[in-house]
Amino acid sequence: MTKRTTARTTKRAHRLLFSVALVLGAAAARPLHAQQPGQPPEKFENLKVFPKDIPRDTLLGIMRRFTIALGVNCQYCHVSEPAPAGAPGPRERLRPALDDKQTKLTARFMLRMVHSLNDSLLPTLDKRHTPAIQVTCATCHHGSPLPQTTQAMMMETIGRAGVDSAIASYRKLRADMISGRYDFREGPIEDLALSLATSGRTADAIKLLEMDQEFFPGSPDVDATMAEVYMKGGDKDRAIARYRAALVKRPNDPRLLRRLQELGVTP
Ligand code: HEC
Ligand code: HEC
Q1: Cα–Cα distance list, 242 to 108, 190, 217 (Å)
Q2: What ligand is nearest to the CA atom of residue 32?
Q3: Most buried residue, 46, 70, 144, 199, by most Cβ within 10 Å?
Q4: Ligand 2 atom with the shortest distance to the CA of 77
Q5: Which residue among 62, 146, 148, 149 is best mutated to probe the pocket of ligand 2, counting the most ligand atoms within 8 A of its Cβ?
Q6: Per-residue pLDDT tens for 161-188?
Q7: How much is the average pLDDT of 187-203?
Q8: Are 225 and 193 in contact (CB under 8 A)?
Q9: CA–CA separation, 45 vs 28, rounded Å?
Q10: Nearest-CA neighbor of 154 among 72, 102, 212?
Q11: What is the widest separation between alpha-carbon atoms in the chain?
Q12: How far is the CA of 135 from the centre of ligand 2 (A)?
Protein backbone atom coordinates (compact mmCIF):
# COMPACT_ATOMS: atom_id res chain seq x y z
CA MET A 1 0.00 0.00 0.00
CA THR A 2 1.36 3.46 -0.86
CA LYS A 3 1.68 6.13 1.79
CA ARG A 4 -1.14 8.04 0.16
CA THR A 5 -3.58 5.14 0.17
CA THR A 6 -2.66 4.35 3.75
CA ALA A 7 -3.36 7.93 4.77
CA ARG A 8 -6.60 7.87 2.84
CA THR A 9 -7.65 4.56 4.34
CA THR A 10 -6.86 5.78 7.85
CA LYS A 11 -8.78 8.98 7.24
CA ARG A 12 -11.72 6.99 5.93
CA ALA A 13 -11.51 4.65 8.90
CA HIS A 14 -11.59 7.56 11.31
CA ARG A 15 -14.47 9.21 9.53
CA LEU A 16 -16.30 5.92 9.69
CA LEU A 17 -15.53 5.50 13.35
CA PHE A 18 -16.72 9.03 14.02
CA SER A 19 -19.94 8.48 12.12
CA VAL A 20 -20.47 5.14 13.81
CA ALA A 21 -20.02 6.77 17.19
CA LEU A 22 -22.53 9.40 16.17
CA VAL A 23 -24.94 6.90 14.71
CA LEU A 24 -24.95 4.78 17.77
CA GLY A 25 -24.78 7.66 20.19
CA ALA A 26 -21.62 6.12 21.53
CA ALA A 27 -19.78 9.42 21.98
CA ALA A 28 -19.20 8.55 25.61
CA ALA A 29 -18.90 4.81 25.25
CA ARG A 30 -18.75 3.25 28.66
CA PRO A 31 -16.92 0.03 29.34
CA LEU A 32 -19.12 -2.96 29.98
CA HIS A 33 -19.61 -3.59 33.64
CA ALA A 34 -20.52 -7.20 33.28
CA GLN A 35 -19.29 -8.85 30.14
CA GLN A 36 -21.34 -11.89 29.38
CA PRO A 37 -20.19 -14.55 29.10
CA GLY A 38 -16.40 -14.51 29.47
CA GLN A 39 -14.14 -11.62 28.59
CA PRO A 40 -13.96 -10.43 24.97
CA PRO A 41 -10.42 -10.67 23.55
CA GLU A 42 -8.07 -7.72 23.90
CA LYS A 43 -7.31 -7.57 20.19
CA PHE A 44 -9.90 -7.71 17.47
CA GLU A 45 -9.33 -10.23 14.74
CA ASN A 46 -12.19 -10.05 12.31
CA LEU A 47 -13.48 -6.51 11.94
CA LYS A 48 -14.77 -5.78 8.44
CA VAL A 49 -16.84 -2.67 9.07
CA PHE A 50 -15.25 -0.94 12.07
CA PRO A 51 -11.64 0.25 11.83
CA LYS A 52 -9.12 -2.33 13.07
CA ASP A 53 -7.75 0.11 15.64
CA ILE A 54 -11.11 0.94 17.20
CA PRO A 55 -10.66 1.35 20.96
CA ARG A 56 -11.96 -1.61 22.91
CA ASP A 57 -14.33 0.47 25.05
CA THR A 58 -15.82 2.10 21.97
CA LEU A 59 -16.47 -1.23 20.27
CA LEU A 60 -17.96 -2.75 23.40
CA GLY A 61 -20.11 0.33 23.91
CA ILE A 62 -21.47 -0.15 20.39
CA MET A 63 -22.07 -3.86 21.02
CA ARG A 64 -23.96 -3.05 24.16
CA ARG A 65 -26.14 -0.65 22.20
CA PHE A 66 -26.87 -3.41 19.71
CA THR A 67 -28.20 -5.58 22.50
CA ILE A 68 -30.45 -2.77 23.77
CA ALA A 69 -31.67 -1.73 20.31
CA LEU A 70 -32.62 -5.30 19.37
CA GLY A 71 -33.61 -6.60 22.81
CA VAL A 72 -31.14 -9.50 22.59
CA ASN A 73 -27.97 -10.73 24.30
CA CYS A 74 -24.46 -11.09 22.85
CA GLN A 75 -25.08 -14.73 21.90
CA TYR A 76 -27.84 -13.70 19.55
CA CYS A 77 -25.09 -12.73 17.10
CA HIS A 78 -22.01 -14.45 18.52
CA VAL A 79 -21.28 -18.11 19.14
CA SER A 80 -20.17 -19.14 22.58
CA GLU A 81 -18.47 -22.32 23.69
CA PRO A 82 -17.83 -24.00 27.03
CA ALA A 83 -14.75 -22.67 28.81
CA PRO A 84 -11.92 -25.20 29.34
CA ALA A 85 -12.53 -27.40 32.38
CA GLY A 86 -11.24 -25.84 35.59
CA ALA A 87 -10.77 -22.38 34.06
CA PRO A 88 -11.73 -19.50 36.37
CA GLY A 89 -14.68 -17.28 35.52
CA PRO A 90 -17.85 -17.98 33.56
CA ARG A 91 -18.52 -21.42 32.13
CA GLU A 92 -19.35 -20.12 28.65
CA ARG A 93 -16.87 -18.20 26.56
CA LEU A 94 -17.87 -15.81 23.78
CA ARG A 95 -16.12 -16.26 20.41
CA PRO A 96 -17.01 -12.89 18.85
CA ALA A 97 -14.45 -13.07 16.01
CA LEU A 98 -16.22 -16.05 14.41
CA ASP A 99 -18.71 -15.41 11.63
CA ASP A 100 -20.78 -18.54 12.30
CA LYS A 101 -24.12 -16.89 12.95
CA GLN A 102 -26.31 -15.47 10.21
CA THR A 103 -27.47 -12.75 12.61
CA LYS A 104 -23.89 -11.42 12.85
CA LEU A 105 -23.61 -11.33 9.06
CA THR A 106 -26.98 -9.58 8.84
CA ALA A 107 -25.87 -7.09 11.50
CA ARG A 108 -22.80 -6.25 9.38
CA PHE A 109 -25.07 -5.60 6.40
CA MET A 110 -27.27 -3.44 8.64
CA LEU A 111 -24.25 -1.41 9.75
CA ARG A 112 -23.39 -0.69 6.12
CA MET A 113 -27.02 0.16 5.39
CA VAL A 114 -27.17 2.60 8.32
CA HIS A 115 -23.91 4.26 7.18
CA SER A 116 -25.13 4.68 3.66
CA LEU A 117 -28.40 6.19 4.90
CA ASN A 118 -26.65 8.64 7.20
CA ASP A 119 -23.57 9.41 5.11
CA SER A 120 -24.88 9.26 1.54
CA LEU A 121 -28.62 9.27 1.13
CA LEU A 122 -29.96 11.52 3.90
CA PRO A 123 -27.43 14.32 3.23
CA THR A 124 -29.03 14.70 -0.22
CA LEU A 125 -32.45 15.45 1.31
CA ASP A 126 -33.61 18.98 0.65
CA LYS A 127 -34.63 21.18 3.59
CA ARG A 128 -33.55 18.71 6.19
CA HIS A 129 -34.65 18.98 9.80
CA THR A 130 -32.09 20.83 11.95
CA PRO A 131 -30.31 19.41 13.74
CA ALA A 132 -30.22 16.53 11.24
CA ILE A 133 -31.73 13.31 12.57
CA GLN A 134 -29.51 10.24 12.39
CA VAL A 135 -30.82 6.77 11.71
CA THR A 136 -29.76 4.25 14.35
CA CYS A 137 -30.51 0.55 14.90
CA ALA A 138 -33.18 1.57 17.41
CA THR A 139 -34.93 3.80 14.84
CA CYS A 140 -36.29 0.66 13.21
CA HIS A 141 -35.78 -2.09 15.74
CA HIS A 142 -37.32 -0.58 18.90
CA GLY A 143 -36.05 -3.36 21.12
CA SER A 144 -37.03 -6.13 18.73
CA PRO A 145 -34.75 -8.37 16.61
CA LEU A 146 -37.24 -8.20 13.75
CA PRO A 147 -38.65 -4.74 13.22
CA GLN A 148 -42.30 -5.37 12.44
CA THR A 149 -45.45 -3.37 12.94
CA THR A 150 -48.10 -4.83 15.23
CA GLN A 151 -50.23 -5.47 12.16
CA ALA A 152 -47.49 -7.35 10.29
CA MET A 153 -46.60 -9.43 13.34
CA MET A 154 -50.28 -10.33 13.91
CA MET A 155 -50.85 -11.06 10.22
CA GLU A 156 -47.88 -13.41 10.21
CA THR A 157 -49.18 -15.25 13.28
CA ILE A 158 -52.71 -15.46 11.87
CA GLY A 159 -51.30 -16.91 8.63
CA ARG A 160 -49.21 -19.44 10.50
CA ALA A 161 -51.41 -20.42 13.43
CA GLY A 162 -54.85 -18.83 13.09
CA VAL A 163 -56.60 -15.90 14.71
CA ASP A 164 -57.04 -17.50 18.15
CA SER A 165 -53.30 -18.09 18.49
CA ALA A 166 -52.62 -14.57 17.28
CA ILE A 167 -54.96 -13.20 19.95
CA ALA A 168 -53.27 -15.32 22.61
CA SER A 169 -49.84 -14.10 21.58
CA TYR A 170 -51.05 -10.49 21.45
CA ARG A 171 -52.22 -10.80 25.06
CA LYS A 172 -48.88 -12.22 26.09
CA LEU A 173 -46.90 -9.52 24.27
CA ARG A 174 -49.18 -6.85 25.69
CA ALA A 175 -48.23 -7.90 29.22
CA ASP A 176 -44.67 -6.88 28.24
CA MET A 177 -45.80 -3.56 26.77
CA ILE A 178 -43.01 -1.68 28.50
CA SER A 179 -40.46 -3.26 26.15
CA GLY A 180 -41.82 -0.87 23.49
CA ARG A 181 -41.59 -3.50 20.75
CA TYR A 182 -45.13 -3.09 19.49
CA ASP A 183 -47.81 -0.45 19.36
CA PHE A 184 -50.61 -1.57 21.67
CA ARG A 185 -52.90 1.37 21.11
CA GLU A 186 -56.28 0.53 19.59
CA GLY A 187 -55.44 1.68 16.05
CA PRO A 188 -53.24 -1.16 14.77
CA ILE A 189 -55.91 -3.79 15.55
CA GLU A 190 -58.59 -1.68 13.86
CA ASP A 191 -56.36 -1.32 10.83
CA LEU A 192 -55.68 -5.05 10.74
CA ALA A 193 -59.38 -5.90 11.18
CA LEU A 194 -60.30 -3.67 8.24
CA SER A 195 -57.79 -5.32 5.95
CA LEU A 196 -58.99 -8.80 7.00
CA ALA A 197 -62.59 -7.71 6.36
CA THR A 198 -61.62 -6.44 2.92
CA SER A 199 -60.39 -9.93 2.06
CA GLY A 200 -63.67 -11.43 3.29
CA ARG A 201 -62.52 -12.59 6.73
CA THR A 202 -65.30 -10.94 8.72
CA ALA A 203 -65.34 -13.43 11.59
CA ASP A 204 -61.59 -13.11 12.23
CA ALA A 205 -61.83 -9.33 12.05
CA ILE A 206 -64.65 -9.27 14.61
CA LYS A 207 -62.76 -11.55 16.99
CA LEU A 208 -59.82 -9.14 16.90
CA LEU A 209 -62.04 -6.13 17.48
CA GLU A 210 -63.77 -7.83 20.41
CA MET A 211 -60.37 -8.24 21.98
CA ASP A 212 -59.52 -4.60 21.19
CA GLN A 213 -62.76 -3.54 22.85
CA GLU A 214 -61.81 -5.40 25.99
CA PHE A 215 -58.74 -3.14 26.24
CA PHE A 216 -60.50 0.04 25.08
CA PRO A 217 -64.09 -0.30 26.33
CA GLY A 218 -64.74 3.44 26.08
CA SER A 219 -63.58 3.84 22.49
CA PRO A 220 -66.20 4.69 19.87
CA ASP A 221 -63.66 3.90 17.15
CA VAL A 222 -63.62 0.19 17.96
CA ASP A 223 -67.44 0.13 17.57
CA ALA A 224 -67.29 2.17 14.38
CA THR A 225 -64.66 -0.19 12.96
CA MET A 226 -66.85 -3.17 13.89
CA ALA A 227 -69.68 -1.48 12.02
CA GLU A 228 -67.49 -1.08 8.94
CA VAL A 229 -66.43 -4.71 9.14
CA TYR A 230 -70.09 -5.82 9.36
CA MET A 231 -70.92 -3.62 6.38
CA LYS A 232 -68.14 -5.24 4.35
CA GLY A 233 -69.56 -8.62 5.38
CA GLY A 234 -73.07 -7.55 4.31
CA ASP A 235 -74.55 -7.60 7.82
CA LYS A 236 -76.47 -4.32 7.84
CA ASP A 237 -78.34 -4.85 11.13
CA ARG A 238 -75.22 -5.48 13.15
CA ALA A 239 -73.51 -2.54 11.43
CA ILE A 240 -76.35 -0.23 12.49
CA ALA A 241 -76.20 -1.50 16.07
CA ARG A 242 -72.44 -0.81 16.18
CA TYR A 243 -72.77 2.69 14.73
CA ARG A 244 -75.40 3.42 17.37
CA ALA A 245 -73.13 2.09 20.11
CA ALA A 246 -70.33 4.32 18.82
CA LEU A 247 -72.66 7.30 18.85
CA VAL A 248 -73.48 6.71 22.51
CA LYS A 249 -69.77 7.00 23.26
CA ARG A 250 -69.25 10.02 21.00
CA PRO A 251 -72.60 11.83 20.68
CA ASN A 252 -73.23 14.01 17.62
CA ASP A 253 -70.18 12.76 15.75
CA PRO A 254 -70.90 13.96 12.20
CA ARG A 255 -69.20 11.00 10.53
CA LEU A 256 -71.24 8.48 12.53
CA LEU A 257 -74.47 10.42 11.95
CA ARG A 258 -73.76 10.46 8.21
CA ARG A 259 -73.13 6.71 8.14
CA LEU A 260 -76.46 6.00 9.83
CA GLN A 261 -78.19 8.39 7.46
CA GLU A 262 -76.62 6.53 4.52
CA LEU A 263 -78.04 3.32 5.95
CA GLY A 264 -81.47 4.93 6.00
CA VAL A 265 -81.99 4.95 9.75
CA THR A 266 -82.24 7.60 12.43
CA PRO A 267 -79.70 7.57 15.26
C1 HEC B 1 -26.85 -7.56 16.52
C2 HEC B 1 -25.68 -8.43 16.46
C3 HEC B 1 -24.61 -8.29 17.53
C4 HEC B 1 -24.77 -8.33 18.89
C5 HEC B 1 -26.06 -8.47 19.68
C6 HEC B 1 -23.45 -8.25 19.45
N7 HEC B 1 -22.53 -8.16 18.46
FE8 HEC B 1 -20.51 -8.12 18.68
N9 HEC B 1 -20.27 -7.94 16.66
C10 HEC B 1 -21.30 -7.89 15.74
C11 HEC B 1 -20.74 -7.65 14.42
C12 HEC B 1 -21.52 -7.51 13.11
C13 HEC B 1 -19.34 -7.58 14.59
C14 HEC B 1 -18.30 -7.37 13.48
C15 HEC B 1 -18.15 -5.90 13.14
C16 HEC B 1 -17.18 -5.69 11.98
O17 HEC B 1 -17.05 -6.57 11.12
O18 HEC B 1 -16.55 -4.61 11.92
C19 HEC B 1 -19.10 -7.78 16.01
C20 HEC B 1 -17.82 -7.83 16.58
C21 HEC B 1 -17.58 -8.03 17.92
C22 HEC B 1 -16.26 -8.11 18.50
C23 HEC B 1 -14.95 -8.08 17.74
C24 HEC B 1 -14.55 -9.50 17.38
C25 HEC B 1 -13.26 -9.59 16.60
O26 HEC B 1 -12.23 -9.91 17.19
O27 HEC B 1 -13.31 -9.32 15.39
C28 HEC B 1 -16.43 -8.26 19.84
C29 HEC B 1 -15.32 -8.40 20.90
C30 HEC B 1 -17.83 -8.29 20.11
N31 HEC B 1 -18.51 -8.15 18.92
C32 HEC B 1 -18.38 -8.44 21.36
C33 HEC B 1 -19.75 -8.40 21.61
C34 HEC B 1 -20.30 -8.44 22.95
C35 HEC B 1 -19.51 -8.54 24.25
C36 HEC B 1 -21.65 -8.37 22.80
C37 HEC B 1 -22.72 -8.30 23.89
C38 HEC B 1 -22.59 -7.17 24.79
C39 HEC B 1 -21.93 -8.30 21.36
N40 HEC B 1 -20.74 -8.32 20.70
C41 HEC B 1 -23.18 -8.23 20.82
C42 HEC B 1 -22.63 -8.07 16.01
C43 HEC B 1 -23.21 -8.16 17.27
C1 HEC C 1 -34.20 1.14 8.22
C2 HEC C 1 -34.62 0.18 9.22
C3 HEC C 1 -33.51 -0.63 9.90
C4 HEC C 1 -32.42 -0.15 10.57
C5 HEC C 1 -31.98 1.28 10.77
C6 HEC C 1 -31.73 -1.32 11.09
N7 HEC C 1 -32.39 -2.46 10.74
FE8 HEC C 1 -31.88 -4.37 11.20
N9 HEC C 1 -33.46 -5.07 10.17
C10 HEC C 1 -34.36 -4.30 9.46
C11 HEC C 1 -35.26 -5.15 8.73
C12 HEC C 1 -36.41 -4.69 7.83
C13 HEC C 1 -34.90 -6.47 9.03
C14 HEC C 1 -35.53 -7.75 8.50
C15 HEC C 1 -34.92 -8.05 7.14
C16 HEC C 1 -35.51 -9.33 6.57
O17 HEC C 1 -36.57 -9.25 5.94
O18 HEC C 1 -34.90 -10.39 6.79
C19 HEC C 1 -33.77 -6.38 9.94
C20 HEC C 1 -33.12 -7.48 10.47
C21 HEC C 1 -32.02 -7.42 11.31
C22 HEC C 1 -31.37 -8.56 11.89
C23 HEC C 1 -31.76 -10.03 11.68
C24 HEC C 1 -32.74 -10.44 12.75
C25 HEC C 1 -33.16 -11.88 12.63
O26 HEC C 1 -33.49 -12.48 13.67
O27 HEC C 1 -33.19 -12.41 11.51
C28 HEC C 1 -30.33 -8.09 12.65
C29 HEC C 1 -29.34 -8.92 13.47
C30 HEC C 1 -30.34 -6.65 12.54
N31 HEC C 1 -31.37 -6.27 11.72
C32 HEC C 1 -29.43 -5.81 13.15
C33 HEC C 1 -29.41 -4.43 13.00
C34 HEC C 1 -28.41 -3.57 13.58
C35 HEC C 1 -27.25 -4.03 14.45
C36 HEC C 1 -28.72 -2.29 13.20
C37 HEC C 1 -27.93 -1.01 13.48
C38 HEC C 1 -26.57 -1.02 12.99
C39 HEC C 1 -29.91 -2.37 12.38
N40 HEC C 1 -30.30 -3.68 12.28
C41 HEC C 1 -30.56 -1.26 11.80
C42 HEC C 1 -34.42 -2.93 9.44
C43 HEC C 1 -33.49 -2.08 9.99
Answers
A1: 50, 14, 13
A2: 1
A3: 70
A4: 29
A5: 146
A6: 999 999 999 999 999 998 889 999 999 9
A7: 97
A8: yes
A9: 24
A10: 212
A11: 85
A12: 12
Ligand with smallest separation from the Cα of 102: 2
Looking at residue 91, its pLDDT comes to: 86
> What's the pLDDT band for 14 if we cut at 50, 70, 90?
low
- Cβ of 140 less than 6 Å from ligand 2: yes
Tens-digit pLDDT profile for residues 234-245: 999 999 999 999
- 84-142 tens-digit pLDDT: 888 888 889 999 999 999 999 999 999 999 999 999 999 999 999 999 999 999 999 99
